[in-house]
TrEMBL record:
<dbReference type="InterPro" id="IPR038987">
    <property type="entry name" value="MoeA-like"/>
</dbReference>
<dbReference type="Pfam" id="PF03453">
    <property type="entry name" value="MoeA_N"/>
</dbReference>
<protein>
    <recommendedName>
        <fullName>Molybdopterin molybdenumtransferase</fullName>
        <ecNumber>2.10.1.1</ecNumber>
    </recommendedName>
</protein>
<comment type="function">
    <text>Catalyzes the insertion of molybdate into adenylated molybdopterin with the concomitant release of AMP.</text>
</comment>
<dbReference type="InterPro" id="IPR036688">
    <property type="entry name" value="MoeA_C_domain_IV_sf"/>
</dbReference>
<keyword id="KW-0808">Transferase</keyword>
<feature type="domain" description="MoaB/Mog">
    <location>
        <begin position="175"/>
        <end position="314"/>
    </location>
</feature>
<keyword id="KW-0460">Magnesium</keyword>
<dbReference type="InterPro" id="IPR005110">
    <property type="entry name" value="MoeA_linker/N"/>
</dbReference>
<keyword id="KW-0479">Metal-binding</keyword>
<keyword id="KW-0500">Molybdenum</keyword>
<comment type="pathway">
    <text>Cofactor biosynthesis; molybdopterin biosynthesis.</text>
</comment>
<dbReference type="InterPro" id="IPR036425">
    <property type="entry name" value="MoaB/Mog-like_dom_sf"/>
</dbReference>
<dbReference type="Pfam" id="PF00994">
    <property type="entry name" value="MoCF_biosynth"/>
</dbReference>
<dbReference type="InterPro" id="IPR036135">
    <property type="entry name" value="MoeA_linker/N_sf"/>
</dbReference>
<comment type="similarity">
    <text>Belongs to the MoeA family.</text>
</comment>
<keyword id="KW-0501">Molybdenum cofactor biosynthesis</keyword>
Length: 398
């Protein structure tokens, strides 16, 4: 049986970053930048006032308390005048361009205005309250690095830089196929039936990550519905097909044989992990990667978090995720030779250090511990005093 790091390496070796496309900024939200973006302009692009008040020429020397000036000009935000050679003081608004030669702004609250004169009762520092051109970002400076998600902060920066279109990685095309004759949608269940939770879970995961969801289908364990669904996904040029169930050792576990008969080449089947051991990874030449996850809900959760998410990262051109090393409140118990994944909570101990508590009574069919945890934990040691912690959702990973 293949070890988890080796399985992951084989899988990632089969992935290339997806092509890029140029999108209007608003449509690029939540996408990944395809290339480093260097600033096309300086921000601010001109020296401007940081306060409403009076611009004066201090020439590098403090303004003594009690000094007064004639106010001979007014500069509002958006005004275009760049020099008032006759004026010693200029009324100025926040964001307004500093007229040439003016180097200091005294806020209106620290001034006394009488007719055409302004007086500053206290001493004022030379050069204060001026926002220099390029002091946020210089022209040509790296603004956002390749692989950066266009989050709201990135959108603010790009908008300020006047970037209209961005080169982003196209979204992966994904299909989900849940197998199982026992599966039903919401509503009353027939005897022996269960609600399909893996399909909606994966659909939500892919929506949250940001994929182009081609189809989500539910197929019984008999007949050719599975082969048909795989064929449709290939025809729709899926990059990734994720299936759940029918991948272990039972009579109805038809997925490995069905994929092989469709021409998929096996990368690995069965990984030394728990839960999720029967996982199968295959690929179609010139076509999609198929990750066939075992049907138990926590095998699907682990399969998404530790196999699918690394694939999504690689497709986006991101580096592999790095977990945080944490101390366990009590040793995480696993089985020798298996890499184990567990749910838990990260809490700050009395000493201020972060400590992980594994959730009670975890089992691969139990969903409640997933819904009450705030972290994934992993360890390859059967009696782990320390573990790797991973954000519950890969979207939250650095
Ligand atoms: N003799 C063996 N039996 C089992 C083995 C084994 O190695 N030898 N492995 C166990 C492990 S570990 C897992 S995990 C499961 C995986 O089995 P399959 O991938 O074949 O999955 P199914 O049998 O189809 O389903 C397992 C379980 O999950 C429920 N399920 C399936 N799909 C969904 C869905 N969409 N939503 C909610 N729940 C689902 C299904 O009803 C079963 O209870 O096999 C063990 N057995
Ligand atoms: O994937 Mo199975 O637990 O290991 O349920």
């Amino acid at each position: 049986m293949i070890a988890y790091p080796d399985a992951l390496a084989l899988l990632l070796d089969a992935i290339r970053p997806l092509e890029s496309e140029s999108l209007p900024l608003a449509d690029a939200a939540r996408r990944f930048l395809a290339a480093d973006l260097h600033s096309p302009m300086a921000l601010p692009s001109f020296d401007n006032a940081a306060m409403d008040g009076y611009a004066v020429r201090a020439h590098g020397k403090p303004l003594p308390a009690g000094v007064s000036f004639a106010v001979a000009a007014m500069q509002a935000a958006g005004d275009t005048a760049d020099a008032f050679p006759q004026a010693d003081a200029c009324e100025i608004a926040t964001g307004a361009r500093m007229p040439e030669g003016f180097d200091t702004v005294v806020p209106v609250e620290r001034s006394e205005r009488r007719d055409g004169q302004v007086r500053f009762p206290a001493e004022e520092r030379a050069g204060q309250n001026v926002r220099r051109a390029g002091s946020d970002i210089a022209r040509g400076e790296l603004a956002l690095a390749r692989g950066r998600r266009i989050d709201t902060a990135a959108t603010m920066l790009l908008a300020a830089l006047g970037v209209a279109h961005v080169d982003v990685v196209r979204r992966p095309r994904v299909a989900v196929i849940a197998t199982g004759s026992e599966l039903n949608a919401t509503g009353p269940l027939p005897p022996g039936g269960i609600h399909d939770s893996n399909g909606p879970f994966l659909e939500a995961c892919f929506a949250h990550w940001g994929t182009d969801m081609l189809t989500r289908t539910r197929v019984p364990d008999v007949g050719d519905a599975f082969a048909h669904a795989v064929g449709e996904a290939i025809a729709a040029r899926a990059d990734l097909i994720v299936t759940t169930g029918a991948v272990s050792a039972g009579r109805f576990d038809f997925v490995p044989a069905a994929l092989a008969s469709l021409g998929a080449r096996e990368l690995f089947h069965k990984v030394a992990i728990r839960p999720g051991k029967p996982l199968l990874a295959t690929r179609f030449d010139g076509g999609p990667i198929v990750l066939a996850l075992p049907g138990n809900p926590m095998a699907v959760a682990v399969g998404y978090r530790f196999f699918v998410a690394p694939v999504l990262r690689a497709m986006a051109g991101l580096f592999p995720e790095r977990p945080t090393r944490v101390r366990m409140a009590a040793p995480l118990i696993g089985r020798d030779g298996l890499h184990h994944f567990a749910l838990g909570r990260l809490e700050h101990g009395a000493d201020g250090r972060q400590t992980a508590h594994a959730a009670d009574a975890q089992a691969s069919f139990r969903i409640l511990p997933f819904a009450t945890s705030n972290t994934w934990l992993s360890a390859s040691d059967a009696h782990a005093e320390h573990a790797d912690a991973w954000p519950l959702d890969p979207v939250d990973a650095a």
